[in-house]
Amino acid sequence: LDRATQNVRRNRITYDDKELGTIWIDDAIGWVLDTLRELGELENTFFLFQQDHGIEAKTSLYQQGVRIAQFIHFPDQFLPGSTFDGIVSTIDIGPTILDIAGIAQPYEMDGVS
Q: Which of 15, 23, 59, 82 shows the greatest Cβ crowding within 10 Å of its Cβ?
């Protein structure tokens, strides 16, 4: 059983589906990072995680509809704890990943690195 399920059963905690999804994602990302660390590849890996704000927020212009959590692990470029307060769009992710990988864009893309 995964850690989230064990915790729920051990402590008889009840969560709704959204909370369980968040716990599962946290465990899954933790597992990926731990595995990369064990393999000695964590410091050589670009990792981007972006949370989906759910269908409820996608239809609004309130903060939960226009802001989403995102973190990037890229030791060669960003120091731990770095933040960026500018405007970023998900359309920029593709060009940015290609740029980091040193791959030329195969066609003109709307986003920017």
A: 23
- Alpha carbon distances (Å) from 46 to 7, 10, 35, 42, 78: 30, 35, 14, 8, 11
CA atoms within 13 A on the CB side of 20: 11
CA–CA dist 35, 29 (Å, integer): 10
Span 59-81, pLDDT tens digits: 666 666 666 777 888 887 888 88
